[in-house]
Amino acid sequence: MSISTPRQTSGTSTNTTTAVTATQSQRLVVAVSAMFLGAFLVYFAGFSHIDAVHNAAHDTRHSSAFPCH
Amino acid sequence: MFKQIAQTAGFTGLLAALLLTLLQSFSVAPLILQAETYEKAPSADMHEHAEGAMAGHVHDAEAWEPEDGWQRVLSTTGGNLVVAVGFALMLAALYTLRSPTSAREGVLWGLAGYAVFVLAPTLGLPPELPGTVAADLTQRQVWWVGTAASTATGLALMVFARHWLLKISGAVILVVPHIVGAPQPAVHSALAPEALEAQFKVASLLTNAVFWIALGWISAWLFRRSEAPATQPGLNPAL
Question: Do the beta carbons of residue A40 and residue A53 sit within 8 Å?
Answer without folding.
Answer: no
